[in-house]
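Annotated sample (chain length 157).
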Amino acid sequence: MQEDIEQRSVTLIISTVKLTGRALKAAITKFLAYQKEVMARASPDVQPKGKQTVKALVGQNQGVANIEIDDKNIKDFDRVARKYGVDYAVKKDRTTSPPKYLVFFKARDADALTAAFKEYTADTVRKRSRPSIIQKLRTILPQVREQAKEKKKELER
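Output written by the structure step:
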């Protein structure tokens, strides 16, 4: 009798786990479908803002222009473009070595993008002109070692 109860409880646990997984999958699917439907009904004419895909940017039918960026640190540009409220899309051109980045933007955002690029280039020039902290530490390191040796000598006397 005890063995029969144990067998049933294991079967019940296994079937419950399977049911929970299926139910969870169905619930997530229904929620995503509902959310997509609500978003489509609520605001069909709301345009995406800021960084977006090239397809979404072209789909706004406002004309698209692009600029090439060779810099590896494209994240700095993202921060500046968000600050200026530019609608843009970044596409990595992997055909060249090193890869280049194409920044697509709306034609009406040209003035804002020009200001954003001026700030971006000023930031990159300023960062490159700053001396490296690691280089400073390497030049100071021998002096620090000398001071440490002098202190040891004083302690030994």
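Annotation: The chain is about 65% helix and 10% strand.
Annotation: The mean pLDDT is 77.
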